């Protein structure tokens, strides 16, 4: 009786996509998180993961209750012509990595030994926070001009992985 049943795919024009690797999966999550950024210069997203579970996320933007650059319609750093990678204190926003680490603290989530997925390589300020938070691996997609950050991350023995989607 079952010999006469013909299986018809629901969506015959759609090819079945291969499952992403864990790095691909979490990097895509970081890219989605970056879409919440309120920065006018660069949208950055971060996801902190342990044992294949998302612990916290963060994107670059102003602290809670503070008017952000998107709302203001102007970037302080652009107004005073601060080059990328310099004078981080001249910004209304916190970096994505800072916000992901802060979220862990705010919610009492342990991130020691975790992996940070970030759309951009961390700056020196974020790198120092990452080192002290005990994060052991960073997977990033885009470079950021900060040689001291690279030096200190290497010295701390944190594994740095340049994301390379296999295609």
TrEMBL record:
InterPro entries: APOBEC/CMP_deaminase_Zn-bd, CMP_dCMP_dom, Cytidine_deaminase-like, dCMP_deaminase, dCMP_deaminase-rel, Deoxycytidylate_deaminase_dom. Zn(2+) binds at residues 95, 123, 126. It holds the Pfam family dCMP_cyt_deam_1. GO terms for molecular function: dCMP deaminase activity; zinc ion binding. Residues 21-167 form the CMP/dCMP-type deaminase domain. One of its GO terms (cellular component) is cytoplasm. GO terms for biological process: pyrimidine nucleotide metabolic process. Keywords: Hydrolase, Metal-binding, Zinc. CDD domains: deoxycytidylate_deaminase. The active site is at 97 (proton donor). Its cofactor is Zn(2+). The keyword Repeat does not apply. Belongs to the cytidine and deoxycytidylate deaminase family. This is Deoxycytidylate deaminase. The gene is comEB.
């Amino acid at each position: 009786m079952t010999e006469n049943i013909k299986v018809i795919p629901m969506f015959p024009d759609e090819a079945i996509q291969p499952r992403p690797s864990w790095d691909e999966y979490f990097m895509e999550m970081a890219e989605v998180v970056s879409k919440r950024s309120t920065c006018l210069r660069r949208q950055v997203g971060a996801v902190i993961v342990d044992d294949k579970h998302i612990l916290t996320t963060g994107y670059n933007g102003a602290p809670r209750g503070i008017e952000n650059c998107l709302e203001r319609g102007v970037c302080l750093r652009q107004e005073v012509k601060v080059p990328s990678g310099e004078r981080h204190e001249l910004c209304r926003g916190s970096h994505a990595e800072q916000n992901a680490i802060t979220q862990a603290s705010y919610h009492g989530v342990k991130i020691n030994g975790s992996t940070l997925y970030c759309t951009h390589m961390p700056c020196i300020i974020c790198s120092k926070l990452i080192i002290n938070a005990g994060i052991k691996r960073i997977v990033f997609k885009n470079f950021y001009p900060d040689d001291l950050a690279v030096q200190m991350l290497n010295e701390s023995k944190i594994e740095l992985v340049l994301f390379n989607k296999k295609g």
